[in-house]
Amino acid sequence: MQATEPAPNHRILRLPQVIAKVGLRRDSIYRLAREDRFPKPIKLSENASGWLESEIDAYIESKTAERDSASTAQASPAKK
Question: What separation in angstroms does the CA of 5 have from each of 2, 15, 52, 58?
Answer without folding.
Answer: 10, 29, 18, 17
